[in-house]
Amino acid sequence: LCLSIYQAYVAITASLFVLLMIKSCLDGEIKPWQNVLWGLKALAMMAVALLVYFAVTLLVFRFTGAEFNSYVVENINSSASIAGKIRMAYQNFLYIFSYGNYYLITTKTSKIVHLGLAALILLGSVLAAARKPGPLNWALLALLLFLLPLSINCMYLMMSAQSIHTLVLYSFVCFYFLAALVVEKSGLTSAKAMKDILALLLCLVIGSNVYFANMCYLKMHLQYEAADSFYVSMIAQIKETEGFDENSRLAIIGQQDNLLYYAPELDTSLLLGPSQDLINIYSRENFFRQYLGFNIEFAGEDELEEISASPEFEQMAEYPYYGSIKKIGDYIVVKLG
Predict the structure, then answer these.
(1) How far is CA 67 from CA 62, 72, 76, 161, in A?
(2) DSSP 166-177
(3) Which parts of 173-328 fold into alpha helices (H)?
(4) In Å, what is the CA distance from 184 to each residue of 68, 134, 138?
């Protein structure tokens, strides 16, 4: 099911299997060796599922002529060692808490809350384990708690770090499941109070995430409105350029990084990317034609190089100043930077 939704969701399956094994340790209803055997069966099932998925993918490619994306090929051909990938998985799990990697922890309040959840998990695990004596059971529980971060970040074993993004790490939700599990199994007379504390902490996490998400959407909307206004103004100047007619072609040359207001008061770090990407966008031609309704033919790469090497282009000012848009030959040239 996870593979059919999104391949990286296999990490959710792996984490849920580890959580079920932790639950078995806390319940104490089966022996440790039976728990380990069940875990090995689950691991084998995942391996078979991945192989079947890969085989079906290759079969589809054979009949459709499709190919893996370049980043998939890079991941398959990666020379990184397994030990190095495991180290990176654990390291980046810690960075989620310390540096807010992948924006799973979005605010300072959320960071404090997550550290509180981690402390609650450790305390609850110790108290729950104490109710089910047995050194083998304790050792297995400690091992599973150690393996859970690896299962959450197991995509590091199959992908390069450059390909990892927030969507790949939705398995982090199992951290919250673990908190609920150990509180439920703690068996304390104050368990109700611990559940209330857990519910309050999770409400704070949800509130922080909603606040941050709304800020991101607001900032994204403002950035797109700014980019829209930027290009509407440019189109108006292009149409007013002397010599513009139905046969004119457009050549926008160069890039700018300071023409849009970035709204630093809305601190979303780099989650949305730099705002200048919206005016240096590679799909500018489609944006002009489909979004702004300005149907004009753009110059090709060779033509852009030829124009940028001309004396007329060298003498032009940079946009948006006077002289930054002029006609050179059959082209309306915009010197963006």
Answers:
(1) 9, 10, 13, 22
(2) GGGGGGGHHHHH
(3) 173-185, 191-240, 284-286, 301-308, 311-315
(4) 44, 20, 18
Phi, psi of 332 (to 5 degrees): -90, 115
Backbone phi, psi, residue 328, to 5°: -125, 110
Burial class (CB in 10 A: 0-12, 13-18, 19+), 16: middle
What whole-number distance in Å separates Cα of residue 53 and Cα of residue 60?
11
First to last CA, the chain: 49
For the chain, give the number of residues.
337
CB-based contact 319:334 (threshold 8 Å): yes
State how far the Cα of 321 lies from the Cα of 334, in Å rounded to an integer.
11
- Chain centroid to CA 126: how far? 34
Residue whose pair of structure tokens reads 């980046």 in the numeric block: 92
Q: Does residue 73 carry a pLDDT above 70? A: no
Under 8 Å between Cβ of 325 and 332: yes
Tokens 């099911």 locate to: 1
Q: What is residue 253's DSSP assignment?
A: E
Residue type, 158: M
Mean pLDDT (the chain) is 86
**Which of 208 and 160 is assigned the larger pLDDT?**
208
Round to whole Å and give the CA distance between 299 and 331.
Answer: 8
> Which band of pLDDT confidence, cut at 50, 70 and 90, is reported for residue 128?
confident
What pLDDT shows up at residue 192? 78
Among 120, 255, 232, 103, CA closest to 175: 120
SS3 150: helix
Cβ count within 10 A of residue 278 = 20
